[in-house]
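User: Um, any thoughts?
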Amino acid sequence: MSSKILKHPNNIKLPEPQLKGVNGSAPHTTLITGGAGFIGTNLADALLSEGKSVIIYDNLSRKGVEKNLQWLRDKYDTNLRIEIADVRNETTLREAVNSADAVYHFAAQVAVTTSCLDPLMDFEVNARGTVNLLEAIRQSEKQPPLVFTSTNKVYGGLEDLNVILKGDRYEPEDVEIAANGVSEDRKVDFHSPYGCSKGTADAYILDYARTYDLKAVVFRMSCIYGPHQFGTEDQGWIAHFLISVLKGEPITIYGDGKQVRDILYIADLINAMKLAQEQMSTLSGKAFNIGGGVENTISLLELIQMIENLHGEKVDVDFGDWRTGDQRYYVSDIAKFNREAGWLRKVSVYQGIENLYHWLTEFGETNKKVYSRQST
C-alpha cells in the first residue's frame, strides 16, 4: 500500500500509514476532533496502544500541538491518520465521520478572553462547528457514538454561591456543596461568549440525543492537566504556571489567588472517556460533571507553594484584576458519573502535579532547553 501524503499548512509531511486490525480485519476507528491537543494526544496514545485506528482531525491553530503530532507519528507507524482541517469545513468533517466507529469532540476555541475579543469566531467554532459534527453523525450510516467535552463555565459565575475565606482558599458556606461540590442539578447560566458557545454546543448535543436518538454523552469538565499540555494564561493554567517557572518568568494571578478548583489528571480523564463509550447504551443523552471532586482541590496560592517546593525556588507572582466569568469556587460533584459508570479517579493532586513538573522538565531538556532561565 502506497503512503498518502496529507497536506499541512507548514509543509510538514504526514504519511497515512497502513491500517492493521486483528486477524486482518479492519480495526475499530476513532475520530478525535482537536486530536492534536493535550487531551486528544493522550487519548490517541491510549487507543493506538490498544491496536485501534485513530483519525486525528485538527487545524493546528494552537501553538505547540505540532509537537504532539510528531510524537505520535514517531511512536506509531500504523493505524494513525491525520487530517489537517477545521470543524467549519463541513465536507471534510463529513468524510472523517463516515470513517469512524466512535467520536470524541475536543475541537474548540478555548479562551474566555479570545471569545470576548472575537465572539463571532468563537461561536462559529464552538457552536456551529459542533452542529456541523452532529449533522455529519446524523447523516452517516454508522452514526458513531459521541463524547463531548463541555465546561463548568455553563454554570456561570456562581455569584449566588456564598463563600468564606479559610487560609489561602475560598470555601462555600453551603454545607452540602462544601461536602460534595456543584452537581448537574444546578441551573445552567452561561457567562461570556465562550460560556455561551460551549453551552450552546452542550445543549445541542443533548437535544440531538433526544430528538434524533444519537448516542452521545456530555462531560462538563473542570480543570484537566498532564503531559502534552502547553498551557497559557487563558487555558491550561496548571501547565502554564509550571512552564513559566521553568522559563524563569513571573506568574500573573487574576484575583487574589484564593480561588479554588478541583483538578483531574489526564490519565483519570481518559479512563472516564473510555468508560463513557463502553457504556454508551445506558449513559447516552446525559451530562456529567467531570473533575477531581472535593478530594482533589487546590487554590492558586496553594499551587504556587507546591511548585516552590518542587522547584526549590521562590516563584515571582504578580496580581491582576478579576476577569469576566471568573469563579471564586468551583468544585465538581462527580458522584453521578462515579455511580452510573463505576468510575474512580486514582491520581492525587500532588502526584499529578509532580508528574507534570517532571514531564515538562524533561521536555525542555530534550527540546534545546526551551525552559532554560531567560537572561535579564
